[in-house]
Amino acid sequence: MAEAALKPADAPKPATTPTPVAVAPATGAASVEPHTALATQEAPKRARAAPSAATLSFLAGVIAPSLIVAFYLFALAAPQYSSKVAFSVRTLEQSAAANILGMLAPTSGAGAEDGLILFDYLHSQQFVDRLDGEIDLDAIYNREGADWFFALGTERPIEDKTRYWNYASTITYDNASRVIEVEVYAFSAQDAQRIAAAVSQESERLINQISEQARQDAVRFAELDMRDAEERLRAVRLRMAEFRKTAQEIDPNTNAELQMQLVASIETELASARAQETTLLTYLGPNAPTVRVVRRRIESLEAQAAAERAKLAGGGDSDPAEATISQRLGVFEELTVDLEFAANLYTASLSALTQAQTEARRSQRYLATHIAPTNAEQSEYPSRSMLIIAVFVSLALLWAVLRLISFSVASRA
Question: In sequence order, what DSSP letters do the residues of 42-87 get, joined into one string?
Answer without folding.
Answer: HHHHHHHHHHHHHHHHHIIIIIHHHHHHHHIIIIIPPPBEEEEEEE
